[in-house]
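A reminder from the course coordinator: this example appears on the midterm review sheet, so study it carefully.

Given structure:
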């Protein structure tokens, strides 16, 4: 997993509440187990009309938002099913940070496991930074300092320190397990001696 420290981007503002995972990546795109290639179908039903043509007034179809790394979203973002394809699609599009006032728990945790930083701030703070999206001005996010900087202002955000460590060091579940390789090998060697029948053919 790619390490996360800080990013700077013109944010894309999607002021819709209760965006569920089916809106993020519809069910017809869940056949793949690859983490790449899903970005083109992100928010599929909002981005394209029935003929597959881009809808002009959808924010991610317009410059500079089609290159945004930061998405500002309405409350309860990522509700619905637990599909991990939702953060995969966001990441493949290029979005590595989501800012909202609230998230569905499973989606929130899946973000950390896939290298996306989900930030929770108040509705008033959301409105304040959304103005920078409308003005097409950059904001910056610093994970080590836990800050969002815009203009001459700064917002502090809270984050679980273990999840923060995992993002900064690029540790997913597999990497966390591999960190304990020495202990796992030591345990297996001990079991081979004390309970050899477990390993017999």
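Designed residues:
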């Amino acid at each position: 997993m790619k390490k996360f420290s800080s990013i700077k981007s013109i944010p894309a503002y999607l002021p819709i509440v209760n965006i569920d995972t089916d809106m993020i990546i519809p069910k017809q795109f869940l056949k793949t187990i690859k983490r790449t290639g899903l970005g083109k179908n992100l928010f599929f039903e909002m981005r394209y009309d029935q003929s597959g043509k881009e809808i002009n007034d959808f924010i991610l179809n317009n410059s500079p938002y089609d290159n945004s790394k930061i998405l500002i979203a309405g409350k309860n973002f990522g509700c619905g099913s637990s599909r991990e394809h939702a953060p995969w699609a966001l990441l493949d599009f290029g979005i590595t940070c989501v800012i909202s006032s609230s998230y569905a728990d499973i989606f929130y945790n899946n973000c950390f496991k896939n290298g996306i930083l989900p930030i929770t701030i108040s509705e008033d703070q959301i409105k304040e930074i959304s103005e920078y999206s409308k003005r097409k001005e950059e904001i910056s996010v610093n994970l080590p300092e836990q800050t969002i900087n815009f203009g001459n202002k700064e917002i502090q955000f809270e984050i679980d320190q273990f999840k923060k460590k995992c993002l900064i060091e690029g540790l997913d579940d597999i990497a966390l397990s591999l960190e304990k390789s020495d202990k796992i090998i030591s345990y297996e060697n001990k079991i081979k001696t004390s309970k050899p029948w477990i390993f017999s053919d």
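The CA atoms of residues 182 and 188 lie 10 Å apart. The chain has two domains: 6-170, 172-201.
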